[in-house]
Amino acid sequence: MGGASALALLLALSAAAQAPTPPLPPPRPDRPPVQTDEARSEKPAPGEAPAEAKAPDADDPEAACLARLAELGLKFESRPPVQEKSCSIENPVLLSALADDVQVAPPSLMACPVAEQLSKWMKEAVAPEAERQFQSAPTKLLIGTSYQCRDQRNGEKLSEHAFGNGVDVMGFEFAKRAPLSIDSHPENSPEAAFQESVRKAACPIFTTVLGPGSDAAHGDHLHLDLRQRKGDYRICQ
């Protein structure tokens, strides 16, 4: 190759090396852009909540109550608000089981806070006392009445049942012994001790507790409700 030809080739190669790299074409509209390492690092790992996920709004007590039921492991269905004549439930749930798969029989409609307090009572009082007296875990909570649009027995005003704010507990079933019905049990028997213990333990959890001995109408069940009274007055009988 002649000197002039070699010099021309060297100049062409030098110019090509210094030319700026042409920009990449924009991505096709049917293909997402390639993610950078930074973008990938912002994606949550499997099982993690997205970064923008928020806890239930503290200003929405109904949603917060439902979230707590789920966290406690209760089995329930959220239902639309109830309005029947003068009876109503603002945040009703159909409760079918408490934590540890303690069944609620039959599944019962009630206000969300009542379901939450039933769970507290079962965990803190009923289950420990069942182990103490019977060496057996409870498996079922037997409900007589939950929501029912009716007056109090004396006819003076609407019952707490009319607001899904109370339940009548008829008895319990257990894993290793016969069922127990709320009743007048022989004095000093394990059944009497269990019933009296869970009744007393319900008093700081519910605002009304009525059972055998309070009056003839409550001789075969425990009535538990969350009625609000002036000065946080409670009835425990």
> What is Rg?
33 Å
Question: Pairing-aware structural class of the strands and helices?
Answer: alpha+beta
Tell me the total number of β-strands.
Answer: 11
Low-confidence stretches: 3-22, 24-55
Fold blueprint:
Elements: H1 3-18, H2 37-42, H3 61-72, E1 75-78, E2 82-84, E3 87-89, E4 92-97, E5 103-111, H4 112-134, E6 138-143, E7 166-174, E8 180-181, H5 190-202, E9 208-210, E10 222-225, E11 235-236
Parallel strand pairs: 5-6, 9-11
Antiparallel strand pairs: 1-4, 2-3, 4-5, 6-7, 7-8, 7-10, 9-10
Distinctive features:
single chain, 237 residues, alpha+beta, nine-stranded mixed β-sheet, two-stranded antiparallel sheet, 11 strands, 22% strand, disordered N terminus
Structure characterization notes:
The protein is of the alpha+beta class and 237 residues long. The chain has 5 helices and 11 strands. It has helices at 3-18, 37-42, 61-72, 112-134, 190-202, and strands at 75-78, 82-84, 87-89, 92-97, 103-111, 138-143, 166-174, 180-181, 208-210, 222-225, 235-236. Strands 1, 4, 5, 6, 7, 8, 9, 10 and 11 form a 9-stranded mixed beta sheet that branches. Strands 2-3 form a two-stranded antiparallel sheet. Helix 3 (61-72) packs parallel to helix 4 (112-134) and helix 4 (112-134) packs antiparallel against helix 5 (190-202). The radius of gyration is 33 Å and the shape is globular. The N and C termini lie far apart (116 Å).
Brief sketch in words of this structure:
The chain has 237 residues and is of the alpha+beta class.
